[in-house]
Amino acid sequence: MGFFSKQFASVIEWNESNENILFWKFQSDEIKKDSRLIVRPGQDAIFLYNGAVEGIFEKEGNYEIESQIIPFLTTLKSFKFGFSTPLRAEVLFVNTKEVLVKWGTKNAINLQAPGLPGGMPIRAFGTFSCKIGDYNVLIEKLAGIKQTYSVDDVKERIVTDLNPLLMRWIGKAGRDMFNLQMDAADIGDGICKELNDELNGLGIAITNFTIESFSYPEEIAKMQEKAAAQAMVGDVNKYQQLAMADAMGKGGSGGTMATDMVGLQMGMAMGQQMVNQMQMGMNQQMGGMYGQQQTPMGQNSGTGTAPKFCPNCGTPANGANFCSNCGNKLV
Fold it and tell me: In this structure, which CATH number among 3.40.30.10, 3.30.479.30, 3.40.50.1000, 2.130.10.10 belongs to the domain 99-221?
């Protein structure tokens, strides 16, 4: 913080290392002419006299009060700065950096749901970014009554107003309560604009508001996981394809469900191939059998070759065209 020499301030500076502080006001009853002002990177120094802005020093550096500060102040240029007449003023140090803050709903938000009279309780989590906006408004609304102001103060104000904002913008999205994440960007943009409009009245700007996740009750989350698993297993082809792809990606290492699935798939493919080959052979064999012209007993087959025995009486044919016993035509 500031360093003092007896009742006089020899160095006016802000050594605060906590980046969550948005502004800090240096106060001293007397600032002597040989005092120095130090402005560090990421800081602006605002000289205040009787509550009004006298000068803003935005460049980092080490300034002499008498030669480099007083000549640039608005109403104090002619100020008789002597050893016996120290300057009574305030210096407001402002953090110029944009600060990222994590947030979460204080209480669950109850969304309307069929069959649930009290609604579906959900929570939301994310981040927002803020920084000092308008210096004049900041001094009028906050710095005039506060010694310091932190990100925690901004966060507390935002979280207090967050539940109704979330409910309103979720309602505008109009999506199924289980698919809110698909509208998270639009919901966040709408909330960011409203919060920025509100906090601009304090001289603070909200530059970004992000919803990272929505959280459901544990029982509902388990039901969602179960439904997703059933939907995946219900599509057997898709499940097998995913299992095979996963096994290939892991190099086919054994002991996993995916590897077992690949082995099962390969076995089924080989078995199917064997069945197809057997069926093809049987079809060819049956086709050969049924492809020959069948003739009733006692008649020739039309091939032009005489049988060895007469089909009518069984007498040896001996190469004749007609049976020697019954006269039946053999060829």
Answer: 3.30.479.30
d(CA 2, CA 7): 12
DSSP labels, 289-331? HHHSPP--TTS--SSS---SB-TTT--B-TT-SB-TTT--B--
Q: Are 76 and 70 in contact (CB under 8 A)?
A: yes
What does the block give as tokens for 210?
């992000």
Closest CA to 151 of 199, 213, 187: 199
Structural domain boundaries in the chain: 3-95, 99-221, 235-264, 297-331
Query: Residue 149: exposed, middle, or buried by beta-carbon count in 10 A (0-12, 13-18, 19+)?
Result: buried
C-beta separation of 88 from 31 below 8 A: yes
**pLDDT, tens digit, for every residue of 135-153?**
999 999 998 889 999 999 9
Q: Partners of 45 in the beta sheet?
A: 57, 93
For residue 63, the cross-strand partners are 37
> Is there a contact between 124 and 213 (Cβ–Cβ < 8 Å)?
yes
Name which of 224, 201, 205, 203 is nearest 214 in CA terms. Answer: 224
**How far is it, in rounded angstroms, from Cα 134 to Cα 206?**
12
The whole-model pTM stands at 0.60
Between 237 and 130, where is the model more confident? 130
Q: Is the pLDDT score of 213 beyond 90?
A: yes
